[in-house]
């Protein structure tokens, strides 16, 4: 093999990741079947990720499920309820819907789905168990998050949202219409901005953030362009 051939082979060896590989906005019509395949081209079974579904013409709950929670669980962004049992599955080209037809697969109803695949610099999700004390949680987003969403899965509790435009002292509640607030008596993010490897939690105060023994799901989204030197 000549040096030119080696150079060309090396240049083409690195696989690029495109938006279509990691995100899908997919519309579908429910069929009330037990194995309704949604082929959106996203490799969820191999890479991991999250799916968000909402009926377009009805008032049924939003549904979110991901590859990190055990026992096939889903949660509802418009509700404080704990995780419920789910019968969907993840594929190398999307996902397959199981039962629970009213919220995501009722015959003739129209739905929209948003799929986020785990990828450095884009999105990741993880689970953790609260310990009641101020702490840091490691993540693999590969950059500083611009948006962090947490929810208790083992018991009822508010959804809590960090956004970089609000800073580490304030939060939003995803299921509520409240304005951003700075909680009295505790600091949800421990007053500490997230880094490219960790985010912070304050001491536990109910099931919202870090209650001892409560399990949580966390979704982290990249923050876009940064002026940081690194």
State which percent range the strand residues make up.
Answer: 25-35%
What count of helical segments does DSSP give? 4
Report the helical percentage. under 10%
Morphology call: globular
Radius of gyration: 19 Å
Q: Could you tell me how far the N terminus lies from the C terminus, measured between alpha carbons in angstroms?
A: 38 Å
How confident is the prediction overall: mean pLDDT?
87
Count of strand segments: 15
What is the N-to-C order of secondary-structure elements (H for helix, E for strand)? HHEEHEEEEEEHEEEEEEE
- Which sheet architecture does the biggest sheet show? 6 strands, antiparallel
Question: How are the strands of the largest sheet arranged?
Answer: 1-9-3-4-5-6
Class inferred from helices and paired strands: mainly beta
Summarize the structure.
This protein is mostly beta strands.
Structure explained in plain terms:
Helices cover 9% and strands 33% of the residues. The chain has four helices and 15 strands. It has a six-stranded antiparallel beta sheet with strand order 1-9-3-4-5-6. Strands 10-15-12-13 form a four-stranded antiparallel beta sheet, with no helix packed on it. Strands 2-8-7 form a three-stranded antiparallel beta sheet. The longest helix has 9 residues.
Q: Keywords for this structure?
A:
single chain, 230 residues, mainly beta, 4-stranded antiparallel β-sheet, globular, disordered N terminus
How do the helices and strands line up, and which of them pair or pack?
Blueprint lengths: L2 H9 L7 H4 E7 L6 E4 L4 H4 L1 E7 L7 E4 L6 E3 L8 E2 L3 E3 L2 E4 L3 H4 L5 E8 L5 E7 L5 E4 L6 E8 L7 E4 L34 E4 L13 E8 L8
Antiparallel strand pairs: 1-9, 2-8, 3-4, 3-9, 4-5, 5-6, 7-8, 10-15, 11-14, 12-13, 12-15
């Amino acid at each position: 093999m000549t040096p030119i051939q080696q150079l060309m082979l090396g240049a083409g060896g690195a696989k690029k990741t495109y938006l279509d590989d990691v995100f899908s906005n997919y519309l579908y019509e429910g069929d009330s079947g037990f194995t309704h395949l949604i082929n959106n081209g996203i490799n969820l079974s191999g890479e991991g990720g999250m799916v968000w579904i909402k009926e377009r013409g009805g008032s049924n709950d939003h549904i979110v499920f991901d590859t990190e929670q055990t026992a096939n669980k889903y949660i509802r962004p418009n509700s404080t309820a704990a995780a419920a049992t789910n019968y969907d599955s993840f594929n190398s080209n999307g996902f397959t819907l199981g039962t629970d037809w009213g919220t995501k697969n009722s015959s003739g109803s129209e739905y929209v789905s948003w799929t986020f695949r785990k990828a450095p610099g884009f999105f990741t999700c993880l689970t953790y168990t609260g310990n009641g004390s101020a702490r840091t949680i490691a993540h693999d987003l590969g950059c500083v998050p611009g948006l962090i969403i947490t929810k208790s899965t083992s018991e009822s509790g508010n959804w809590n949202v960090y956004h970089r435009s609000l800073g580490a002292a304030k939060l939003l509640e995803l299921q509520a219409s409240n304005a951003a607030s700075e909680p009295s008596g505790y600091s949800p993010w421990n007053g500490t901005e997230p880094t490219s490897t960790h985010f912070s939690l304050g001491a536990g105060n109910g099931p919202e953030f870090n209650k001892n023994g409560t399990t949580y799901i966390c979704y982290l989204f990249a923050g876009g362009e940064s002026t940081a030197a690194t």
